[in-house]
Specification:
Blueprint lengths: L3 H4 L5 H8 L2 E5 L3 H14 L3 E5 L2 H10 L4 E4 L8 H10 L8 E5 L4 H9 L4 E4 L4 H42 L4 E4 L4 E9 L7 E8 L3 E9 L3 H19 L4 H6 L1 H13 L8 E9 L4 E7 L4 E4 L5 E4 L18 E4 L4 E6 L1 H4 L10 H11 L7 H11 L9 E9 L10 E7 L3 H17 L4 H20 L6 E7 L3 E8 L26 H9 L2 E7 L2 E9 L15
Parallel strand pairs: 1-2, 1-3, 3-4, 4-5
Antiparallel strand pairs: 6-7, 7-16, 8-9, 9-10, 10-11, 11-14, 12-13, 12-15, 15-16, 17-18, 18-19, 19-21, 20-21
Length: 558
């Protein structure tokens, strides 16, 4: 007789654990057969066994408790082994519960039917002990490994669910911000294709008037991309806490370069990030933006026209240390909407292979003109376009709406508008009028003189250097500042392009020109200029308190 103990191959820990903790159900209508199988199981180390005399009793025991293996006869009263297999298969339980059929039926069709119904193996009666031991051990070990794999998968899914919750929590909620100068509304959505993803969306305020907008896309997918996304957000948030944050984000290309240096340094995975960074000055509506290889944003004007912000840019983050970025700026007007998104929107694919594309985004944005648009509406449109198929890419969308009442100033502010030819007499009359009216409304006399001097200098330059024959001046007194807006249709003339005079040189050595503009920019708390479609806009603002003196340096918010 063969010594089974000595000839038995050494099994690994999984097999030993499977046997030691296994619970087996023996199903046979013949008591002697059940007794023999139970004793064979005991010799293998299986001590947790139960018995059933027919298929119906077997199903009842399977419903009542947990089993790791079923040894099943076919020909039984009340309910056959075939019916048991069919029930288990219909319930979807056969995949997780191995069944070894032990039967005297030897026809190929009988064996095939059992295998087709989900049986893991088939043994003929009378069975060979060695073969029975091998089949039981193999089935239990595979069951153990399947259970272990399932538990690990469930654990990882639970961890990913927590990670998804944490990642979505990184995205700030929608926001609205009311100021004396305008109203900002931000709507956003982050929808990873998997549990976690690499798209990022963020916004935060810096100081009283500057709002930072960030939207990006990591080149990879899954957990690795999510970590890069979180790191990128953390880097920008870290910059926001620096003492020079206003300067960095006021010129967003500087912030872009800082973050790129960190991400590009020691990047063996070669993961890169495309990104849009914009800063909106809520006191003026000026939007300054930079693209790092990202999809150009959509700007829908209040009149329904559409514009793509695609000029400013640079390489994606992480590609090259020392990469240089360029910014561009535009003024948002009342009713304008800025839509930034990742390519998970434009490259969404329908069942027929058609891509969602830029045109459908533009159509959605145009249709949204008739009602209040929401990013949830755009996301729903994209998912409907995909036909219910699992998304192939992460999606991030940010919608920024800017409202500044054009008909009347907001509560707490006074506004005057003048339209005239900038001849010396008219300029002098306006300056005198402002010197009188500004202090009447609580503006310090010193500040009123700064405003009047700056206006006089700029209007004189417009007339003499740019050839302006008509202009419009808007003066706004807000709780904390005085703003000037000068509009004309003359030749473009950006005062910032004039070379700053050498203030350290003597009067005799100093070249003529440029000093007046320099002093004007020095007096102002902020200054900006843009030329668009034949229209020039020059904007200045002054603090109502005189803390900003003529000794301040020139501010360039570009």
């Amino acid at each position: 007789m063969t010594n089974e103990t000595d000839s038995r191959p050494r099994r690994h820990a999984a097999g030993q654990g499977a046997v030691a903790h296994a619970r087996v159900l023996v199903v046979d209508d013949v008591p002697e057969n059940r007794d023999l199988l139970v004793r064979r199981l005991a010799r293998l180390g299986v001590t947790q066994t139960d018995e059933a005399v027919n298929g119906q009793q077997a199903l009842e025991k399977l419903d009542a408790g947990h089993f790791d293996l079923v040894l099943l006869d076919i020909m039984m009263p009340v309910m056959t082994g075939y019916e048991v297999l069919q029930r288990l298969n219909a319930q979807g339980r056969i995949q997780d519960l191995p069944v070894i059929v032990i039967s005297a039926l030897s026809e190929v069709d009988d064996i095939a039917n059992c295998i087709e119904e989900g049986a893991e193996d088939f043994l003929l009666k009378p069975f060979n002990s060695t073969l029975l031991r091998a089949r039981i051990l193999s089935s239990l070990e595979k069951k153990f490994l399947r259970d272990h794999t399932r538990q690990e998968l469930q654990r990882k899914q639970a961890e990913l669910a927590v990670a998804r919750t944490l990642q979505l929590a990184l995205a700030p909620p929608p926001a609205s911000r009311e100021t004396a100068f305008g109203a900002l509304s931000i709507d956003l959505v982050l929808d990873p294709a998997k549990e976690v993803g690499g798209d990022l969306v963020d916004h935060f305020a810096l100081g009283e008037h500057l709002h930072v907008l960030i939207l990006g896309d990591v080149s990879d997918k899954g957990a690795g991309a999510a970590l890069v996304m979180a790191r990128t957000c953390a880097l920008f948030r870290g910059l926001a806490g620096r003492h020079d944050a206003q300067q960095l984000f006021g010129s967003p290309e500087l912030a872009m370069a800082e973050v790129n240096e960190v991400l590009a340094f020691n990047n063996p995975s070669c993961i890169f990030v495309t990104l849009m960074l914009a800063t909106l000055d809520t006191s003026t509506g000026r939007l300054c933006y930079v693209r790092a290889g990202h999809v150009p944003s959509f700007l829908r004007h209040a009149d329904g026209s559409l514009q793509r912000l695609e000029h400013a840019g640079g390489l994606p983050f992480g590609v090259l240390e020392g990469a240089v970025y360029a910014s561009d700026s535009i003024f948002l007007q009342p009713g304008d909407c800025l839509l930034s998104l990742t390519d998970g929107v434009t490259e969404a694919v329908a069942d027929d292979g058609t891509m969602f594309g830029d045109e459908r985004v533009a159509d959605w944005l145009a249709d949204a003109l008739r009602e209040t648009p929401t990013v949830a509406g755009l996301l729903a449109t994209v998912r409907e376009f995909e036909g219910g198929a699992p998304p192939s890419d992460d999606v991030a969308i940010m919608l920024v709406q800017w409202a500044r009442p054009a008909e009347a100033p907001q509560s707490g502010q006074i506004q005057w508008e003048y339209s005239f030819d900038p001849v010396p007499q008219a300029v002098s009359e306006l300056v005198d009028q402002l010197l009188e009216r500004l202090p009447e409304h609580g503006v310090e006399t010193r500040v009123a003189h700064h405003v009047a001097l700056a206006l006089d200098e700029l209007l004189t330059n417009l007339s003499s250097h740019a050839g302006a024959d008509h202009c419009r001046v808007e003066v706004t007194i807000a709780p904390d500042r005085v703003s000037l807006v000068i509009e004309d249709q003359a030749r473009p003339f950006d005062p910032r392009e004039l070379e700053s005079p050498d203030t350290t040189a003597g009067v005799e050595e100093r070249p003529i020109g440029g000093l007046g503009v320099y002093l004007t920019l020095s007096l102002a708390q902020g200054f900006d200029y843009r030329s668009e479609e034949g229209r020039n806009l020059t904007m200045l603002w002054f603090a109502r308190a005189s803390s900003h003196s003529s000794e301040n340096t020139v501010t360039d918010d570009r």
